[in-house]
């Protein structure tokens, strides 16, 4: 299994509504993209300055499935419409894991 982790920092001008619109768009992707096995979107509590605003953890059966998701027009539209306008930078990582959802 391939796990994709995405951590987004936002511009100071980004509002809570901007971040929630992005989170809602991300949460809607699994209904449209069959490659996604598990998808979790987490917003920062907003209680500590300098923290990232949003974390995405996504699982895929293979790297090919991840690449299909990465290059999918729905995913690219979400990036253009919601990520780029508020992004101050991001980090991402893909790695292999044998952990299933719910495993300790």
From TrEMBL:
Q: What sequence ranges are listed for the domain Stress-response A/B barrel?
A: 2-95
Q: Which organism is it from?
A: Amycolatopsis jiangsuensis
Entries under Pfam families matching the protein: Dabb (PF07876)
In which domain of life is the source organism classified?
Answer: Bacteria
SUPFAM superfamilies per record: Dimeric alpha+beta barrel
Q: Report the protein name in the record.
A: Stress-response A/B barrel domain-containing protein
Q: Please give the Gene3D superfamilies that the UniProt record associates with this protein.
A: 3.30.70.100
The protein's matches in InterPro entries, at most eight in alphabetical order, are given as:
Dabb, Dimeric_a/b-barrel
> What SMART domains does UniProt report for this protein, alphabetically?
Dabb
């Amino acid at each position: 299994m391939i796990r994709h982790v995405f951590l987004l920092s936002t511009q100071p001008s980004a509002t809570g509504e901007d971040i929630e619109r992005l989170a809602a768009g991300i949460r809607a992707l699994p209904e449209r993209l069959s490659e996604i096995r598990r998808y979790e979107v987490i917003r920062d509590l907003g209680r500590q300055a300098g923290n990232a605003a949003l974390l995405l953890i996504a699982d895929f059966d293979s790297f090919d499935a991840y690449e299909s998701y990465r290059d999918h027009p729905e995913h690219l539209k979400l990036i253009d419409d919601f990520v780029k306008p508020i992004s101050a930078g991001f980090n991402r990582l893909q790695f292999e894991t044998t952990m299933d959802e719910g495993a300790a």
